[in-house]
User: What shape does this take?
Amino acid sequence: MIFEILIVIFFIVLFTAAAIHEWPSTRTIKLLNKFNGPPTFPLLGNTLLSITVKKEDLLLKVKDYCEEYGSAFKLWFANSPYIILNDAKYLEVLLNNNNHIEKGFMYRVLRNWLKEGLLISSGSKWQYRRKLLISTFHFKILEGSLPIFNNNSQILVKELWKSSKKFIEIESFISRCSLDIICEAAMGVSLNGLSDKGEEYLKAIRRINNLIMIRMFSPWLYNEWIYSLTPNGREYFKILRTLHTFTKMIITERKERKISNSFTNQSTKAGKKNLRTFLDFLLELNETDPGILTFDDIKEEVDTFMFEGYDTSSAAISSAIFILGHNPDIQECLFEELDEVFGDSDREVTMEDLNRLSYLDRIIKETLRLFPSVPCIIRKLYSDLDLGHEGYIIPATTNVVVLPYTLHRNSKYYPNPEKFDPDRFLPEEVQKRHPFAYIPFSGGPRNCIGQKFAGIEMKVVLSSIFRKMRVLSFTKLNEVKPVPGIILRSATPYVVKLIPRK
Ligand code: HEM
Assistant: This one.
């Protein structure tokens, strides 16, 4: 038995080192020695954490470490050092710095899928693309998409109405709606509600998230060749084909419509005249000068925005519904606000309404505090980072980990942190806190480009549901176990019951 364990450990060390193959210098080790951290095993460092601790307990374990080892501590994955930061003042130094915008080592497991799209691209490519794409999320463009948000929310409410008074897994409904919204609003392609194409894509995304999460915590599987020999690896590459085929279909459909010119007369399901979407913008750039943006460039951005644009919002909306189901008093306050803004009418949500829904806004912020859709952000340093405190300098080559999940539950910033309390986001409360104590959309130059889009989507969908229904949650709060993938999910699904309000 001992022999077998030794063999396994030997291979873990071998594959991990082969995958990471960057040995830290003496200077690096000297600088890192200043940081605390849990005990390590020779060669393995803390790698066994990812094997011995269940995935749904990992974030909680790291949260304990934050309490034990302070707001900047180190972990070793074989020969690769990671510094975990859990203090707003350190995060400001890191995230606001234009020199430290490169994504961490673990993002390499996303490369086969998202290639060099905005989320993981680096250097001048990232800078150029970010500048290019930011204009497509301009307020005016988002305002033009409002009918799409409204229409898809109405379809969702009808579906939920049909299932009212039944136990349902809420995210399976929300994810379809979010996917339809991103496809129609950003890509100009309607999936016709609950079509098979969309269903297949959703299933594939769910599964690939799991596979990526498993691989992220198994550095000995980072090597492509080794990974492709494993059953998970074979499944991963098969799913990738499904995902890429879907995005190719989206691009081709929009392109063909554009060529046949029919889309200039075509209305979306929302009944609005044609909108110049994110994808149109990319296709036009490609037409003007294919050197600026090739078809493959378009594809990697469509893959990136489709994934980032739907799964993050879907997780956030589902968490908000779930947590409201445990807080009937807060739901009552929300109903009051909705009744004041909309009365008994069935009219669509307008931009003015969105500005008036300040209590809903606080509910969304508090939801993203407790359940940040992106639980982990990693930057790789290419030069030293001086934290400006007690001589802490993180040396170049280190991966720096930011965990919105643990930061948002730090009692230094949020007293009684497990309590759901939207009033933490009253303007006078926000003013008392460090701005980097709340980072669900990250911060600084590499923050989320889609946060306005997400804000509108969450408000339109949630207001549409709660104008009509109230929610009761059946999954208990203590059954919610945060699994740290690319997107935060609970190991136990959110089971709720929706009941007509009137
Ligand atoms: C509740 C919803 C959302 C949350 C919580 C969220 C959160 C985040 C976070 C934390 C990052 C930084 C990730 C990192 O550095 O590793 C990010 C980046 C990004 N997000 Fe979002 N996001 C949301 C919705 C959206 C939407 C709707 C879109 C697109 C329409 C979008 C597109 C992106 C893109 C493209 C990036 C990469 C930006 C860059 O590196 O320049 N996100 N998001």
Remarks:
- The two ends are 64 Å apart (CA to CA).
- Confidence is low (pLDDT under 50) at residues 263-267.
- The chain is about 55% helix and 10% strand.
- Residues 63 and 406 are 6 Å apart (CA to CA).
